[in-house]
């Protein structure tokens, strides 16, 4: 399973949606002991800073070789909070009344209820809402089939090491693809963010290749 760094979009989405920190004071990022906040001149970024303000931190390498590896934790994604942000923004879209969101290590699955007369456009809006938040390597799949709500929810207690998880997820995604997915994200990717002619095309496992 892949572990990669955050993109700035996640912080922006949190500010826009008004998400709160959890009871331990942790947001989507863990605070970093080598981070210098110029405004506060302390060792950690200011987690209580006004959300309307610009975000700025400065990182300095320790003069002692290798100290970062010993003291600095690599930021990892809090998938639960990321799913929460996506769902909150999705239900703010016109004609979207309910949304269930699952975030895995490299996919976002969204089931939603809509009364839209243009399901293609609604699918495009839901998909692009998620695409504006998650790291760029994520693939996004959407469905307006209400029968898939429970199926997506059934993964909520699982993780990347669960037995047969990839096979089961792929089967769910195949069912989701029967619903509109909206437009291609760009000329080099399909509607789900799966690329064409990538450097690792021969070894990747995109749904489009199955």
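Q: What amino acid sequence fits the structure above?
A:
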């Amino acid at each position: 399973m892949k572990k990669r760094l955050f993109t700035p979009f996640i912080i922006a989405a949190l500010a826009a949606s008004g998400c709160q920190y959890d009871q331990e004071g942790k947001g989507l990022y863990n605070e970093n002991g080598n981070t210098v906040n110029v405004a506060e001149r302390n060792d950690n970024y200011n987690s209580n800073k006004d959300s309307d303000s610009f975000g700025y931190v400065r990182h300095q390498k320790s003069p002692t070789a290798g100290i970062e590896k010993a003291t600095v934790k690599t930021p990892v994604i809090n998938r639960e909070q990321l799913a929460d942000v996506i769902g909150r923004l999705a239900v703010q879209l016109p004609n979207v009344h309910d949304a269930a969101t699952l975030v895995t290590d490299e996919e976002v699955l969204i089931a939603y209820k809509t009364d839209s007369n243009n399901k293609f456009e609604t699918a495009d809006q839901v998909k692009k809402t998620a695409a504006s938040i998650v790291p760029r390597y994520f693939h996004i799949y959407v469905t307006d089939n209400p029968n898939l709500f429970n199926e997506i929810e059934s993964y909520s207690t699982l993780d990347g090491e669960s037995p047969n998880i990839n096979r089961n997820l792929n089967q769910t995604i195949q069912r989701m693809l029967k619903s509109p997915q909206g437009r291609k994200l760009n000329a080099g990717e399909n509607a789900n963010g799966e690329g064409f002619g990538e450097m690792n095309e021969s070894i990747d496992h995109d749904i489009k290749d199955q």
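Q: And what stands out in the fold?
A: The longest strand covers residues 96-103.
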